Amino acid sequence: MKRKAILTLSNGSWLEGKLIGAPLVSSGELVFTTAMVGYNETLSDPSFFGQILIFSYPLIGNYGVPISTGMDKAPGLESDKIHASAVIMTQDSETAYHWNTSTTIDEWLKQHGVPGIVGIDTRELIHKVRDANKLLGIITPENSEGSRLLHDKLKDFNHSDFFDPGCHPVTSYVSTPTRKIIGKGKTRIGLIDCGVKWNIIRNLLRLGCEIELLPWNTKFSEVDCGGWVISNGPGDPANTGDLGARIAGLYKETRPMLGICMGNQVMGLAAGATTERLVHGHRGHNQPVYMFGTNKAFMTSQNHGYVVSKQTLPEEWKPWFINVNDGSIEGIAHIEKPFWGVQFHPEAAGGPCDTQWIFDDFVKTVQRGQM
Amino acid sequence: MSLFKFLKRTDEKTPKVLVLGSGALSIGQAGEFDYSGAQALKALEEEGIQTILVNPNIATIQTDTTANRKTYLYPVKPLWVEKIIKEERPDAILAGFGGQTGLNCVLALDEQGILEKYNVKNLGTCIESLRLTEDRDLFANVMRSIDIPIPPSMAVKTLEDAKKAALKIGYPLIIRAAYALGGLGSGFAHNDEDLSKIVKTALNFSPQVLLEKSLEGWEEIEYEVMRDIEGNVITICNMENIDPLGVHTGDSIVVAPSQTLTDNEFQTLRNASIKIVNKLNIVGECNVQFALDPISNSFYVIEVNARLSRSSALASKATGYPIAYIAAKLVAGYNLIELNNPVTGKTRAFFEPAMDYVVIKIPRWDLRKFSGASRKLGSSMKSVGEVMAIGRNFAEAIQKAVRMASENPNGMSVTTRFKNSTDEELISEVTYPTDERLLALVECFRRKMDIERIHSVCRVDKWFLKKIDEIVVVEDEIISTFNGLVKKVTISDDRELYNILEDMLFLVSKDTWIHWKKTGFSDQQILTLALNNVPELVTLKAKYDDEKYFKKLFFLVRKIRKNNVRPVVKKIDTTAAEYPTPSNYLYVTYEGTSSDTKPFDEGKTPIIILGSGAYRIGSSVEFDWCGVKCTEYIKNNNMQSIVINCNPETVSTDYSTSDKLYFEEISTERVLDIYEFENPKGLINSMGGQLPNVLTDSMAMGGIKLLGHSVDTIDMAENREKFSALLDKIGIDQPRWKNVKSKDELNSFIEEVGFPILVRPSFVLSGTAMKVANTKEALEEYMEHATKVSPDHPVVISEFLQDYREIELDGVAHNGKILISFMTEHLENAGIHSGDATLIYPPQKLYVETVRRVKQAGTLISKELNLNGPFNIQFLAASNKIKVIECNARASRSFPFISKVTGINLADLASRVFVAGLTGEERIIPPSFDEYNLASVGVKAPMFSFSRLEGADPILGVEMSSTGEVGCLGNSFDEALLLSLEATGVTIPKKGVLISSGRLHEKIKMLDAVTILEKLDIPIYATEGTAKFLEEHGHKVKMIGWPEELDRPNVITAIRERWVDFVINVPKNLEKEEMQHGADIRKNAIKHGTSLITTAEMATAFFRALQQYDEFINDHKPVMLPQQKHT
Ligand SMILES: Nc1ncnc2c1ncn2[C@@H]1O[C@H](COP(=O)(O)OP(=O)(O)O)[C@@H](O)[C@H]1O
Ligand SMILES: Nc1ncnc2c1ncn2[C@@H]1O[C@H](COP(=O)(O)OP(=O)(O)O)[C@@H](O)[C@H]1O
Ligand SMILES: [Mg+2]
Ligand SMILES: [Mg+2]
């Protein structure tokens, strides 16, 4: 018999459900995803750091959790841990059958010290999250056994307070502490890690690149590479210290640059634009975008609450992609230099891979630059 | 307008588009094409396009005429379509919404250069691609060219090549015919023997046969893909077959979205689908089917349907995304980003729906209705319909689905079927799938069999097996809970079962109720589990035998359950709540605490209309037509329509048809849940056929206000005892009948009326288990069977009247007064179920006096029953004697036929009567109508699907067996008959006709036909008796032997070697032995695709008509369906 667990919301209301995963108190920003597959990719995505993830799809864990794959092997996991503060779903699958499964979602959450709630009306909760500008939550299991440790640097954060990833320098919590080389090849990519998903690395390796994974606060002048990729990551892009300023420095040169999600936002900031918070964040596998000035549309995987504000984009930059539904900016490009940013996730995992060609084009450009 | 740019039109004339329908409903091609066609027509007409529809299926919604739609009820065949093209000169043709029939027709039109000749543009996916997807060999090459893996396969045209191919690929093999839908003529071969057998049959259906490595046991997954002219692609959803490869998708239990696929697998298959549609340059919709290895990443593409399909209809209903509607807009030249997603109104059509619920489809089979038909499922489809259930967890969804499909509120908890099977029998049931595999699986888990063991034989994914097991575990909990509770209550002889049960139910805790209901158990299931498994209750209930009492117990359970938990109503919005939507597409669930929607405001007039549930033999698209027309009437008269139905193939479950759509069970419990939530002004249950009709009594007990016929009226008409007493009272004759309870009663009845005698259980649909007996032995056997079919109802026997004509009276009455009624005449004599008979309107051969008497009887019955709504009365007539066989106090099968032929919409008129009480309309003036001033004659002919039912005897009798119907108009009866027969696949004899006919005076009837055949000099072959008879009457015929006579050329050879391309086989009587005799002839005719007629009446009529065939087709000017008057 599962123990009870309470979800307290920053709007004063609360809901009761049953506990899965670790019997720990945990708090964060409530966000939801409408994805119907890929819960394992999503939960291991560093961009969800400090967030409580609600799955709109009611049945989660059906095929279990894949045997850990590593950043240079087959997809399945996007990092070596679960970054979300906690999870909320209608029903978890207590057994998992798949030829490549290692354990159930419940076990997996326990292993990573992450609590979850099942058996509440997730659709009703999503209505609340959707209509609130921002909603924070705390999950409190019946006779809990402590608090979820989000990160060593947050050891003494008291989870009976609401944790808001938007108000913390979370980039520093998820970025690689040290520089490391991945793969071998003539095309060297400097990958600025704001919480990179492994599938970005896998895509660059697929194209024969040699990647140098860089802490977010690296001095770029010390890096020898043919092109830059700025990764996805959690938190408020405006809360990334001097990262914007250092990227602005790179704009003086012509080395190709690709920003993804958070990467796109900081590129915007570096260009002099501002970012704003979306009323309805984009989180799911069915976000439609079209290429600015064309009728060509793509289905994309997305996970962001902030966007580059259209009107603040300086004139040497233009929108590259636009969201088909709300018209927000989904990508920016420099009018002559090879600088691109996309707000969505061309690396997918999970979600549609229809924009994977962006990596191919980018790497080709880098290679041309080196010739 | 977009279509202009697409057709490159310069002038301002409104473009005309000719749309091909799919013809009669048959196995493999059913109601889904009425839905997709109707949506396409709507989408085009919105653009101001003039549509011209060719579809002989008169019972469909799409064949209704509209302001800019012309309907031609003609066979979807090049010959006729060309005539219509010539007449109408359309700019373009649209075939993708008419199933395989439409597709094959447009391919033929193209080959014969007709499209070019009249400069008709083919809209949507180009002909070349269509041909590619149909020719399995070409297809294979294209797939290779884009490295999409396909199972090793070879296409052959002869048996010899097939054998060679088998050597190359190796057994096991699956063999399939090209250009055939629903896997017609396909099967699995494990050795040369199987191979020859299957290939031979397959070659009868198609010039080309595909041999393919068998992937039995792999997971079967489908994707629905849309693509616009700009090349933008989306996948609407994927669907996972619970039955692995080997069982046709149409016969599989299907779940959406996929449950066991990882993101990686999901995307791999999605990418492949997109690659394929891009390569094929699809414009519109496309269905891609995959086989996925359950133990690795490898997969194969099985087939691609570059058209709307059964699956696309299911996907539309599962996601709320109107695939056919959008596809039509794409075909008209729009792209996906300029179109809106109609469900949200805000977001765009370039969007992949997100579901926050589970959808399960379960097919509906009627295999037991066909004597001799094999129940095994395979690569060739056998189901006649399907249901779709929506839930927020798997258990809830599948339990709903089983109840919907079986129309039994006890659903998965029904134990009767396998209770007494041995474990071995069970294992073989799940190993070799039949229509009952799911129930067998449930029984396995009741016996605590091990999942691994079951999986190893049935190959169903363990996750699904586990989910079924979990339901059985809760079933067990329910039983043990009640066994525990019974100890806590006082049981004594003076205490009623009701009160004892009440005490027990009060002790069930709230959490327990919630748990049971979340797991999908119906109140009735819970009640039945208690009554059948708690020894104390089993003894108690034996004391009661009246139905009403058990209904009271049901309402008791419901009352107490409601005090603990009630379901909530959720929306289907395509965005999983990401955006606020006005969606009116709803379902009911226990997995949730708050409802998404509110009842209509005060002052409105909401009315619930019950649909007809799964299409099945005896209840099909005709009842959806009735429901939809009624819904439209209510909408158009500013009342609010709320539809409840669970059949994804229908137009009534298109959320744009009604103000609110509940995709839900048509059961007392669920209808009451919705009724109590919406609290409408009333409910209409007489437009959906027999299913909602039989709920009348319990719905009334539950406090539902029924509009139209009163509960008593319906009961009086349904209950044979009461109805017959009523007939006696008003002095209307009926066949003598008896509700026999003892042997003596039986004997004295036989004494009185003599044989043949008709056995018919009461409270059944479409003559289920009705049989005609000529001997006492047969009679007793049939009665035993009948008692099995409906155990708790009396079996009625009645005199079987031979050589009587059959007449039907359909109409609408108001407060006992008939507003308007129409007589239809059956071509065949009584003894062939009205659903299988050929109907003629206006009647051609009835005495005026007979007409008077029938109308008179109608008036009296209506008055006496106080009919208040639609009705159908069936008569037998000889000379001027008329006898009543039954009265249905509800809309009937013939409503759309009559409404369209006469131009008077009976469904409209009936709806007007339903709401008269609410609108305060006391006196309804019926529309005027002059039967003798009718532009054309209408003939309604049945469509049979015997070719799909291996082993079934294609004989007509008192039990209905047709799966669909057509209705055609002609300038004369002969024209209408020829058209309607051609539309049901009967082909004109050229090579030769085989006659083998029954009783003497049927032989005599046949003489005209024979004379005509001689005129047309078509060679005649006959079996001994018939041959002798014909020669005596001076006709030249070739005599051939019966099947068993191997020493001389026999009928089988004649059919197989194609000496004859037409067979007339009239059984002497409907007696078993006799039918056995002709059975081989009939089965072989079907097997080799030879036209077959089994009644003398039809044979005579057909050949009479055939004499004018040539003039008819040469100078025939197509007759358009007249515009309908709305009352
Ligand atoms: N290679 C195969 N091995 C085993 N079963 C197969 C194979 N190919 C098809 N099937 C089964 O046969 C069914 C019908 O095949 P399909 O190509 O879809 O014909 P249809 O045109 O009737 O849909 C499929 O649904 C699948 O269950
Ligand atoms: N007494 C009878 N004599 C001859 N044929 C009969 C008789 N009763 C019924 N039939 C035939 O059986 C068919 C089905 O009987 P009916 O009572 O209408 O069953 P259902 O309720 O399924 O329509 C009728 O259409 C008619 O052709
Ligand atoms: Mg198929
Ligand atoms: Mg009848």
Furnish the topology, listing elements before pairings.
The complex is a heterodimer of chains A (371) and B (1127).
Chain A: E1 4-9, E2 14-21, E3 26-33, H1 39-43, E4 51-55, E5 59-60, E6 65-66, E7 86-88, E8 91-92, E9 101-103, H2 105-111, E10 115-118, H3 122-131, E11 136-141, H4 171-174, E12 180-182, E13 187-193, H5 198-206, E14 209-215, E15 227-230, H6 243-250, E16 257-260, H7 262-271, E17 275-291, E18 297-308, E19 317-323, E20 329-334, E21 339-342, H8 357-370
Parallel strand pairs in A: 3-4, 4-7, 5-8, 7-10, 13-14, 13-15, 15-16, 16-21
Antiparallel strand pairs in A: 1-2, 1-11, 2-10, 3-11, 6-9, 12-14, 17-18, 17-19, 19-20, 20-21
Helix pairs in contact in A: 6-7
Chain B: H1 2-7, E1 16-20, H2 32-46, E2 50-54, E3 69-72, H3 78-88, E4 92-94, H4 99-111, H5 114-117, E5 121-122, H6 127-134, H7 136-145, E6 153-156, H8 159-169, E7 173-177, E8 187-189, H9 192-205, E9 209-213, E10 219-227, E11 233-241, E12 254-256, H10 263-280, E13 284-292, E14 299-305, H11 310-319, H12 323-331, E15 358-364, E16 385-391, H13 394-406, H14 423-431, H15 437-446, H16 451-458, H17 462-485, H18 497-506, H19 510-518, H20 523-533, H21 535-541, H22 547-564, E17 568-571, E18 585-589, E19 606-610, H23 621-636, E20 640-645, E21 660-663, H24 668-678, E22 682-684, H25 690-694, H26 696-701, H27 711-718, H28 720-729, E23 737-739, H29 743-753, E24 757-761, E25 771-773, H30 776-789, E26 795-799, E27 805-814, E28 817-829, E29 839-841, H31 848-865, E30 869-878, E31 881-888, H32 895-902, H33 906-919, E32 937-943, E33 964-970, H34 973-983, E34 993-997, H35 1000-1015, E35 1020-1022, H36 1024-1032, E36 1038-1039, H37 1051-1056, E37 1062-1066, H38 1072-1087, E38 1091-1093, H39 1096-1106, H40 1109-1114
Parallel strand pairs in B: 1-2, 1-4, 2-3, 4-5, 18-21, 19-20, 19-22, 20-21, 34-35, 34-37, 35-36, 37-38
Antiparallel strand pairs in B: 6-9, 7-8, 7-9, 10-11, 10-13, 11-12, 12-15, 13-14, 15-16, 17-18, 23-26, 24-25, 24-26, 27-28, 27-30, 28-29, 29-32, 30-31, 32-33
Helix pairs in contact in B: 2-12, 6-7, 8-9, 14-15, 15-17, 16-17, 17-20, 18-22, 20-21, 20-22, 23-33, 27-28, 34-39, 35-39
Bound molecules: adenosine-5'-diphosphate (2 copies) and magnesium ion (2 copies).
One magnesium ion (MG) is lined by residues 249, 289, 303 of chain B.
